[in-house]
Structures are given as structure tokens and as C-alpha cells.
């Protein structure tokens, strides 16, 4: 029996892959690939590998998780080296923990290769450190929506934490997120950055404030996939305009 490797493909720039990730991709017999994995990274796959796209983006047609897990098990039991290639990091909102547990329960060996998550890459790409001795002693990575109403993030508590918030999958719910943070005591003047398609040719970003976020985001045309960074560390952004609201588009070489 062969094994399954859960590989973090990072935010899209192939230069940000780890050496171990590249080796795993190049050695794959079967690749199960998320929608957010870039073409430049897929170019590393061997011509002999079977590639199956198993997209799971919100608001789009999705491959059922149960099908993905069954396929990984079947291919591994057939003696193939299966690579489950995920955008970002397998354990950061990627359901990697669920997949590993399910595979281990079936007696299948699993290796996990971490990847650079978009929350780190997006912030760094425009000059934002997620921690700063003057402004933030930590960072919280949080989804913009829970699995259900009971798992909805406690935005009031997060506002009181005074930590940098890195919000995934929050564009469609930015008004609710804004309302929750303001109700929790966050200042409308709190700096906010939104980074779409971090590290890719099409990267775009918005620098604004919490009070202006929904209107500024709608006017910018920025959509998913994007991360939202909330906190005073956004003042370190290359395009920080002081009290003004500004947008900037940056294109990165592959």
C-alpha cells in the first residue's frame, strides 16, 4: 500500500513552495487538486501523473468531501502515491485535519507538507507584519463564517483582544463582520487591508478603515479569494495613506 501526502501549495507563487512540496508533486502518481492551486505550480507535476481537480470554493459547484476521501483511499490502496494538493496550508481552513484522521482510520499512511497560507503571504506582499511590538502582540486567523450559527466567530471577543485579525472567506460577509467588531468596541478608524489573489499576477489590494470597509470593498471590485487584515499593523502597508482610503493594484512576476 502506498501513501497519501497532504501538500500545501502556498498562495500561488511557485517560488514560495517548500522544497519538500516540490519533491512530493514531482513524485506523485495521482494529484487531487484544489481550485486555488496555480497553473505555474501544476506545471511541476509529472506528465505521467493522473490529475483530478476537486474544487471546493464557496459559492461554486463543489466536489463532495466524501468523494475526495473515497478517491484518496482507493488510489492509495491501488499502490499509488497520492498527493492531495491544497492552496495555502493543508491545516489552515483546508480540512487537512479531517482528511488525515479519515485516512489513518483506514490504515493508510499520511504525510503532511505545510505551505505558506494566504494570510501570511497577502499581508507580507504589501509590507504588513502581522505582529509588531508597538501595535500587536499576536495574530488570530479566523474564518469569516462558521460551519453553522453555533460556530460563528465571536467578533466582540476578537475586537476586545486587540490582536491582529486575519479573516479568511470574509468578503461576502464583510458588513456583518464590521458590525460585530464595532459592536465589540473596535474603533471605526481601525486600519484594514484586503488582499485578493495574493502573490499572483492578478493580485489586488485595498487599504481602508473598518468604518468604511463595506462601501470601500464594494467600490474596489475586489472579491474572493481574498483575506482581510484588521489592526494597527496595517499602518505598515506600503500604500498606507493616513486617513485617506486608497486602492492599489500590484502585479507580481511568476
Characterize the structure shown:
This protein is α/β, with parallel strands linked by helices. The chain folds into 2 domains: 3-113, 3-Layer(aba) Sandwich (Cobalt-precorrin-4 Transmethylase, domain 1), CATH 3.40.1010; 118-236, 2-Layer Sandwich (Methyltransferase, Cobalt-precorrin-4 Transmethylase, Domain 2), CATH 3.30.950.10. Helices cover 27% and strands 21% of the residues. It is built from 8 helices and 11 strands. The protein has a 6-stranded mixed beta sheet with strand order 6-7-10-8-9-11, sandwiched between helices. It has a 5-stranded parallel beta sheet with strand order 3-2-4-1-5, sandwiched between helices. Strand 2 (30-33), helix 2 (39-42) and strand 3 (50-53) form a beta-alpha-beta unit. Helix 6 (155-161) packs across helix 7 (174-183). InterPro entries: 4pyrrol_Mease (IPR000878), 4pyrrol_Methylase_sf (IPR035996), 4pyrrole_Mease_sub1 (IPR014777), 4pyrrole_Mease_sub2 (IPR014776), CobA/CysG_C (IPR006366), Siro_Cobalamin_biosynth (IPR050161), Uropor_MeTrfase_CS (IPR003043). Residues 3-213 form the Tetrapyrrole methylase domain.
Beta content: 15-25%
Mean pLDDT score, rounded?
91
CATH topology of the largest domain: Methyltransferase, Cobalt-precorrin-4 Transmethylase, Domain 2
- Distinct helical segment count: 8
Please, how many domains?
A: 2
* Helix and strand pattern: EHEHEHEHEHEHEHEEHEE
Q: Give the low-pLDDT segments.
A: 243-254
The radius of gyration over CA amounts to 19 Å
Q: How far apart, in Å, are the first and last alpha carbons?
A: 37 Å
Enzyme class: transferase
Keywords: Cobalamin biosynthesis, Methyltransferase, Porphyrin biosynthesis, S-adenosyl-L-methionine, Transferase
InterPro entries: 4pyrrol_Mease, 4pyrrol_Methylase_sf, 4pyrrole_Mease_sub1, 4pyrrole_Mease_sub2, CobA/CysG_C, Siro_Cobalamin_biosynth, Uropor_MeTrfase_CS
Pfam families: TP_methylase
